[in-house]
Amino acid sequence: MLTLAVAESQQQLVDQLVQGSVKALTGVTLWRQEDGTLALQSWSGTVQEEGKPVPLPGAPNYRLGWTPEAPLPASVQAMLGLRLLYLDALNEKLELSDQLSTLHHAALTDPLTGLGNRRAFDADLEASEAAHEDFGVVFIDLNGFKALNDKFGHALGDSLLRGYGVWLSRVTHERAQVYRLGGDEFVVLVHHTVLSPEAFSIWAMERLQIPFVDDVSAAIGIAWRHECENVRAVLSLADQRMYAVKKADAPTTATQERRRFRTST
After folding, report:
1. What is the rounded distance in angstroms from the CA atom of residue 251 to the CA atom of residue 175?
2. Nearest residue to 83 via CA among 157, 21, 149, 146
């Protein structure tokens, strides 16, 4: 009985019936009834015609057949029913946990690039602030992306965004986390760097550019936590510096670029 009570699967239950719990049994089949249909769940012992499956106490969806057709102790049947209910509840819990994990991941992931999204960025930013870390924020907006997207279509534009996301993740590996906020805007949260802010700025302006597409470039703005009084000010400063770079790169533009990212909550 104890071995039945600690069985970790349906197969272990039927194996234990044949191998030890009820020595007279030579074959066991376990069935589950769904919508009026019996489906075989597991079996153990010799391959022969087991007796007619009978409902198990406490687990009416399950049926048990066995050979030879001798009385099976009620205590054994009751233990089987209880253990099957427990295993069902455990499996349901694991399935729900997997579903919640999948939903949680989807809620924090940009579906196009696989990078973290704005929600993930906000959560990680708050965590860095709570840990009293001196972090940096790099805002990136792609110059020329709209023109390329309009000329060659969204498929090429999406491919560029995915490729640039891969590039950012590769060149900032172990230094930072990369996010896509939407459209052609990306942000990098810098945690660990041996470079000074000045040296990092020089590195970023060169390495975070787009190396594989003509007529598309990255406008980059960088701000550090120690420069500002609060975390919102860091976002605002990086945003201002990014658009200062964008304006300097396009001095003849008559209309101001649309600012899709706002730092206010």
Report:
1. 33
2. 21
* Residue 116 confidence class, pLDDT cut points 50, 70, 90: very high
Residues 249-260 pLDDT 10s: 754 333 333 344
- How far apart CA 48 and CA 56 sit, in angstroms, is 21
In the block, tokens 């597991």 appear at 42
Residue-wise DSSP of the chain: -HHHHT--SHHHHHHHIIIIISTT--EEEEEEEETTEEEEEEEEESSS-PPPPEEETTEEEEEEEEES--PPPHHHHHHHHHHHHHHHHHHHHHHHHHHHHHHHHHHTB-TTT-SB-HHHHHHHHHHHHHTT---EEEEEEEETHHHHHHHH-HHHHHHHHHHHHHHHHHHTTTTEEEEEEETTEEEEEE---SS-HHHHHHHHHHHTS-SS-TT-EEEEEEEEGGGSSSHHHHHHHHHHHHHHHHHHH-TT-SSPPP-------
Active-site pick, 15, 110, 141, 184: 184
122 is catalytic: no
- Beta carbons of 187 and 260 less than 8 angstroms apart: no
- Reading the block at residue 136, the tokens are 């940096």
Token pair for 230: 């609060």
* Per-residue CA distances from 25 to 19, 20, 76, 79, 197 (Å): 8, 9, 13, 17, 76
Calpha distance 233→263 (Å, rounded): 9
By the 8 A CB rule, do 18 and 26 touch? yes
Query: What confidence tier does 100 reach under pLDDT thresholds 50, 70, 90?
Result: confident
